[in-house]
Design a protein that fits this description.
It contains 11 helices and 20 strands. It is of the alpha+beta class. The longest helix has 23 residues. The protein is globular and about 50 Å long.
């Protein structure tokens, strides 16, 4: 037995997000999710005459591999999965979690080894640029607890968020993409000492509307690598590499993070010292999903919060490449809604968004009341 909402979601992932075609190879990576949903994905792929391949993983087992692996073993795992990914035309990653802090006791060096020898080789270099891919979290008690909701209420929220009218969102995002493509200077103001300047001139702009992440709802680009100056104080709790950070404050000079402040300074320093690119920004994006209006310590949800932005230290996407490469990509989120302290975004001196609401008439279709 399965929930009818699960069938709707599986068909969205296969028919819309990855648009599976006849004879295409599709890798379904299932991490701590119900077998019933994996079967629905297989059936949806076969209905499109694609070829489903499945890998089933457990975060508990992954923890053991990361924590006690040698360079040679981790690198060989990367080689093995890279070979498989090279032969796929589409990838669907469904990631559940029984314990959101499963990786919290993995040493920074062990996590760095996994990221550079395994994850970066498989996902950053192959899956992201070479396949049609979509990634999503799977709802469960752990996520409901993160969100501070009952399991039933969270499931209702989850399926509403994940199956909204993405084609409608795609059409509404066109005006913002067009504007950003013409923009040079960006100025962001927000709570605390947030006052950040950078350029996006010449960098590609991409709309996200259910084709890569579920839930979705953002438009992203990247700053010119050495153009970021000022301070940003992120006000959204974030779970990264198994640890929760309630507060992160970064100071930039000519693109580089030169001062770091926040929870667990030692671990923050380790993350931003992963490699040279970890101290530069690889993405600037604006969150647009009208049903995501509160943080839940899950990046795939929190980066889509309506009225938010994320300024992301680390690797830039090939689709919006500013030349920065790194083993990390940390979508740290700043909410600019009134209850979070407000804030403004200016493009070339023009006020574009105030307190989370778009101001120009051409962008008002992106405001929450118009996307629901």
């Amino acid at each position: 037995m399965y929930d009818p909402r699960e069938k709707k979601l599986a068909e969205l992932l296969v028919n819309y997000s990855t648009d599976v075609q006849k004879d295409e190879n599709v890798l379904i990576e299932a991490i701590d999710i119900p077998v019933a949903f994996v079967k629905l994905l297989i059936r949806a792929v076969r209905a499109r005459e694609g070829n489903p391949f499945v890998t089933v993983k457990s975060n508990e087992i992954q923890r053991e591999l990361y924590k006690h692996g040698t360079d040679a073993q981790i690198a060989f795992s990367g080689d093995y999965e890279a070979f498989r990914m090279k032969n796929m035309q589409a990838y669907i990653g469904v990631r559940g979690s029984r314990n959101i802090t499963e990786f919290s006791d993995i040493a920074s060096e062990d996590m760095k080894r996994y990221q550079t020898l395994w994850s970066q080789r498989v996902h950053t270099k192959i899956r992201v640029p070479e396949t049609k891919w979509v990634v999503l979290r799977w709802p469960g008690p752990s996520m409901a607890q993160q969100a501070g909701m009952s399991t039933e209420a969270f499931e209702d929220f989850y399926f509403k968020v994940c199956t909204l009218d993405y084609p409608k969102m795609a059409k509404a995002e066109d005006a913002l993409v067009e504007l950003m493509q013409k923009t040079d200077k960006v100025h962001i103001k927000g709570p605390g000492e947030t006052d950040l300047h950078f350029s996006i001139k010449g960098i590609n702009v991409i709309k996200s509307c259910g084709l890569r992440n579920i839930p979705d709802g953002e438009v992203f680009t990247a700053p010119v690598k050495d153009s970021v100056n000022g301070v940003i104080e992120y006000n959204t709790p974030t779970l990264y590499q198994g640890s929760v950070f309630e507060r992160v404050r970064l100071t930039f000079n000519n693109g580089k993070i030169t001062q770091i402040d926040g929870d667990d300074p030692e671990r923050l320093e380790a993350i931003f010292n992963t490699d040279d690119g970890a101290r530069y920004v690889g993405e600037f994006a604006m969150g647009l999903n009208p049903y995501v209006n509160r943080p839940m310590k899950d990046i795939l949800f929190d980066e889509k919060i309506a009225g938010s932005i994320h300024i992301t230290p680390g690797n830039s996407y090939d689709a919006a490449d500013n030349g920065n490469k790194s083993a990390i990509h940390w979508d740290l989120v700043l909410r600019q809604t009134p209850e979070c302290g407000g804030g403004e975004i200016y493009f070339d001196g023009e006020l574009i968004r105030k307190d989370g609401i778009f101001v120009p008439a051409s962008l008002k279709a992106l405001n929450p009341e118009n996307l629901k």
